[in-house]
Amino acid sequence: MSETIRVFVNSGAVDLPPGADVAAAVRAFDPALERQIAGGAAYVTDGRGIPISTASSLSAGAILRVVISSRRSGSADADA
């Protein structure tokens, strides 16, 4: 059994311990992105584009995309 699993986040690969979650993968790739997710300015999708929880466990070969929201909370009236 391998001691690490490789997962892909945006344009990069990270090696993590088996059982790692989405948050750990994003943190290993770019801690600033993890902060944006925590603050609601971004979210994570799986390889199919379906939003995924940061608490979800990963398996080897998982593909994740971090999507940065174009609107900040509270700016809904900016277009009015």
Task: Characterise this structure.
The protein has a 4-stranded mixed sheet, covered by helices on one side. Strand 1 (5-9) and strand 2 (12-16) form a beta hairpin. Residues 75-80 have low confidence and may be disordered. It is α+β, with helices and mostly antiparallel strands and 80 residues long. Helices cover 20% and strands 26% of the residues. The protein starts with a strand and ends in a 12-residue tail after the last strand. It has a single domain, classed as Ubiquitin-like (UB roll) (Roll). The protein has helices spanning 22-29, 31-38; strands at 5-9, 12-16, 42-46, 63-68.
List keywords for this structure.
single chain, 80 residues, alpha+beta, Ubiquitin-like (UB roll), 4-stranded mixed β-sheet, 26% strand, globular, disordered C terminus
